[in-house]
Write a structure and sequence with these properties.
With 500 residues, the chain is α+β, with helices and mostly antiparallel strands. It has helices spanning 36-42, 53-59, 76-81, 94-118, 124-145, 179-193, 211-225, 228-239, 250-253, 259-266, 284-288, 302-307, 363-376, 380-394, 403-410, 430-445, 452-459, 488-492, and strands spanning 2-5, 64-65, 171-174, 274-281, 298-299, 327-329, 332-334, 341-346, 351-362, 463-465, 473-475. The chain has a three-stranded antiparallel sheet with strand order 4-9-8. Strands 1-3 form a two-stranded antiparallel sheet. It is globular and about 60 Å long.
């Protein structure tokens, strides 16, 4: 058991502390959680105000070193690219993500504690959302700061503290536990909370864990957990009976080159494909986007785009027509997803925070989760149906794939095909070729979203990062740097560090 400081930094942090000795009544400017409406309001802070995208995209094979002729935005950028322990504390750093996730967890726990005290009769929807929020924040933490779940090692691999009650002291003993224990608790919170979700609670359901978003989260979680029956169950609930009607119209979006329109349209709550939309403070739009002041030293280069992502050849031919309109230049090509939204603290001085708004769960990524689960059940017909539907939304070439086409293509050495070193078995031939195809599609679908990093961890894909000043660096299969180091302040408080 170790000491760790987790800052609450929320309005209701001390709501459960007796104050009769100090005040005769609650001051007017304090919020007392005694109604369903107040619980609902507090749940807004149960979503992390930080994103892992900057870290994980820079660490993945979606980024290259473009050479010393170019600058970079901040010290954190080369540190992430080099898989070093990040020393900076910025909007995108491990420290900020850690703090914001535990702040979100603290909010969820305060709501759950209050519901116990005032009764659950009229608060079931709030309880469901709080449980999903608590599960999601822990899901982010365990997949960032730990090795990926696998049946071989996760009962020994260190996890992260799973906090299940409000904190009333500054110092509290915590144990990291194991990755397997964290996953078990996430599954428990999902299964308890998801049936309680009620979309009628929200004015704009897509800004909260609405039912379909909760199902999409469950589908991704169980895919990572390798429980494929549950992946398929929840993905199907998220997609509905007519998934062809809820996937993104990439081809239609590509018809305009209006950058601002594209950024705003991509994150629109009006689109059926966007299931959960969250804000976060992040410099990612500046670092990776088509802005000249972001620095071009490390970016999604034209070479990477042509080899493995948006311009790469595949079963569809030379490239996907949905990505014909991109922005930026050869050093950092950008598909218009995540624009910069400035939150000014001083408009006159032009000082403020850069924010993103990002679709955390979408139907297109959920469709690929289901297809992958079908492959492990060897239900190739249904996997093929999902993959053909994904292709329909991304290309106008009219391609309609078959198992033979997949087999013939991926038995070759193609640029997008990566050697897989998973800690589980994959049957050679059809199953392995399907997985290569799906991973290629997932890499394209999630470009700039940070999710490629988790596929790299899941499948033990080695990442080669070039360096102009020295030889290439290779992140090998069992490299401990696949688990991002805990923040220095957390280690200093006594929580065991990740091995290096």
């Amino acid at each position: 058991m170790k000491n760790i400081i987790i800052s609450l930094l929320i309005t209701g942090a001390c709501l459960f502390t007796a104050c009769n000795d100090f005040l005769d009544k609650m001051p007017d400017n304090r919020a007392e959680l005694n109604t369903e409406e107040k619980l609902t309001s507090l749940l807004v802070s149960a979503y992390p105000a930080a994103s892992f995208i900057t870290m994980t995209e820079l660490m993945s094979d979606n980024t290259a070193d473009n050479g010393p002729l170019y600058t970079y935005y901040s010290l954190m950028v080369p540190q992430c690219y080099n898989w070093e322990d990040v020393s900076e504390i910025t909007q995108d750093s491990p420290q900020y993500l850690w703090d914001q996730c535990y702040i979100a967890i603290a909010s969820a726990n305060h709501v759950l504690q209050t519901i116990k005290e005032i009764g659950e009769e009229n608060c079931t929807a709030q309880k469901g959302e709080a449980l999903l929020c608590r599960a999601y924040a822990h899901f982010v933490l365990v997949n960032i700061f730990c090795q990926h779940y696998n049946e071989q090692n996760s009962t020994q691999d260190m996890g992260i503290p799973y906090v299940e009650e409000p904190e009333t002291v500054v110092f509290k003993n915590y144990d990291r536990g194991t990755v397997a224990e964290v996953y078990e608790k996430i599954a428990r919170d999902i299964e308890e909370g998801l049936p309680l979700i009620n979309d009628q609670l929200y004015d704009i359901p897509k800004y909260h864990f609405n039912y379909k978003a909760a199902c999409a989260f469950a589908a991704r979680f169980y895919l990572y957990y390798r429980k494929f029956d549950l992946t398929i169950k929840y993905a199907t609930l998220a997609l509905g009976d007519a998934p062809n009607e809820v996937i993104r119209d990439y081809l239609g979006d590509a018809k305009t080159s209006d950058l601002d329109w594209r950024f705003n349209h991509y994150i629109s709550a009006e689109l059926n494909c966007n299931l959960l939309i969250l804000p976060a403070k992040s410099y990612w739009p500046i670092i990776h986007g088509p802005y000249t002041n972001g620095g071009k030293r490390y970016g999604h280069s034209q070479e990477i785009a042509k080899e493995g992502t948006i311009w790469s050849p595949g079963l569809w031919g030379e490239n996907l027509s949905a990505y014909n309109t991109v922005f930026g230049d050869a050093q950092k090509l950008c598909y218009p997803k995540l624009g910069a939204f400035t939150e000014y603290t001083d408009k006159v001085a032009g000082i403020g925070y850069i924010n993103i708004v990002y679709p955390t769960f979408t139907t297109d990524e959920t469709l690929l989760c289901r297809a992958e689960a079908y492959v492990y059940q060897e239900n190739y017909a249904l996997a093929l149906a999902d993959m053909n539907l994904w292709l329909k939304g991304h290309t106008n070439s009219g391609v309609n794939i078959s198992p033979d086409i997949i087999h013939n293509y991926y038995t070759q050495e193609v640029p997008s095909k990566k050697v897989l070193h998973p800690k589980f078995s994959i049957n050679s031939g059809t199953q392995e070729n399907f997985i290569h195809f799906i991973l290629h599609c997932r890499r394209i679908e999630t470009i700039h979203d940070g999710l490629r990093w988790f596929d790299i961890k899941r499948y033990g894909i080695e990442v080669v990062h070039n360096h102009y000043e020295s030889s290439d660096d290779i992140l090998t299969v069992d490299d401990p740097r696949r688990a991002i180091q805990l923040p220095a302040q957390v280690i200093g408080a006594g929580l065991p560090a990740n091995p290096r």
